[in-house]
Design goal:
Largest interface: A-B, 36 and 36 residues
CATH architecture of the largest domain in chain A: Orthogonal Bundle
Largest sheet of chain A: none
Low-confidence stretches of chain A: none
CATH class of the largest domain in chain A: Mainly Alpha
Pfam family, one (chains A, B): TetR_C_43
Mean pLDDT of chain A: 86
Keywords (chains A, B): DNA-binding, Transcription, Transcription regulation
GO molecular function (chains A, B): DNA-binding transcription factor activity; transcription cis-regulatory region binding
Oligomer: homodimer
Distance between the termini of chain A: 56 Å
InterPro entries (chains A, B): Homeodomain-like_sf, HTH-type_TetR-like_transc_reg, HTH_TetR, Tet_transcr_reg_TetR-rel_C_sf, TetR_SbtR-like_C
Radius of gyration of chain A: 19 Å
Strand content of chain A: under 5%
Protein name (chains A, B): TetR family transcriptional regulator
CATH superfamily of the largest domain in chain A: Tetracycline Repressor, domain 2
Number of helices of chain A: 9
DNA sequence: ACCTGAACACCGTTCAAGT
DNA sequence: ACCTGAACACCGTTCAAGT
């Protein structure tokens, strides 16, 4: 069953409008999203039955990019260097995307973590497996452990980011490394 | 200016009602809090002008207890043992309190972290200073670093808590320790 | 001074009518 | 099939009247 072209276009308009509005202070009002997209309230509701569905659509794309990056880094670098670089990119994504998005909806904080068994979890598992095979990583941590430990990224403030994040990532990587 | 006794009593009733309701699934409805407390809507609003003020009142007490604990542990144990034990208690508090409370209000996630320069930050600084003096801790991390790294605690699920948290705390402490 | 609770305002959700 | 937007419902906030 192919999607009608106007439906597909409207879906894109909604996501675009939400992407713009979510960076603004205050809540993300669904009525404002519909208005900015130039659509009726009911149309928004047809595409995204809850606010959570809409917010999830916003960050799904970012997760796909992180997954693709893990594959590429593993092909180009040693396991520990790949993990180190991937963390740095994760940090950059978290700063811009997850922080802003999740500030809108408390339940999303929960769901990003719960989603780990998906593609993101597999990508991270690949990184960890390579590192363990090399003997540089603890052998008792899994991908969910690492996702959990990375939550701090969502709470670092803009103005302290540059000074604090490299050190925090170093502490975390140190803790994951075998002595 | 002393508080009128009925006002003090009502304030306590509100906090008590909110404490009970916040553990239930779904949002914390202010109207439900007023109803359970047996008070009018306006009375709730007089005491707590925003939902955030109410939620903050709920976890302020918990923070006080953590602060007192840090002092006591430093008097009774070696610096690294004190830090280790304090982390374990922090984990227990985070599990029961912060996770439930912050799930209700996204902005609270933000504010718990921003509050670090307060009493909690001082208590943690005392722990870190003692550890550094002993030469067991990295000398470039501060109390806010540790608070940020502890955020994972709020995202561990009930059923995985026992298996995962000890390992995650070990990774974190390992990262904070000098090699 | 503080409390009450009905009235108001805001915004998410629904649905009858239109294309 | 999908879209529109007015109507509805829910809940946070306010305020005139009461104690």
């Amino acid at each position: 069953m192919a999607e009608r072209s106007d439906a597909a276009r409207n879906r894109a308009l909604i996501i675009e409008a939400a992407r713009e509005l979510i960076t603004e202070p205050g809540e993300l009002k669904l009525s404002a999203v519909a208005k900015r997209a130039g659509l009726g309230q009911g149309t928004l509701y047809r595409h995204f039955a809850t606010r959570e569905e809409l917010v999830r659509a916003l960050y799904d794309r970012e997760i796909d990019e992180l997954v693709a990056l893990a594959d590429r880094l593993l092909g180009e670098h040693s396991p520990d260097e790949a993990l180190r670089r991937w963390f740095t990119h994760l940090a950059a994504y978290a700063r811009v995307k997850f922080g802003v998005i999740a500030a809108v909806e408390a339940s999303v904080w929960h769901d990003i973590g719960a989603q780990t068994p998906g593609k993101l979890g597999e990508a991270l598992t690949a990184l960890l497996t390579a590192g363990r095979a090399d003997g540089v990583l603890r052998d008792d941590v899994d991908s969910r452990d690492v996702i959990l430990l990375s939550w701090f990224l969502a709470h670092v403030e803009e103005e302290e980011w540059a000074e604090r994040t490299p050190r925090l990532l170093a502490v975390l990587l140190d803790g994951l490394t075998t002595r």
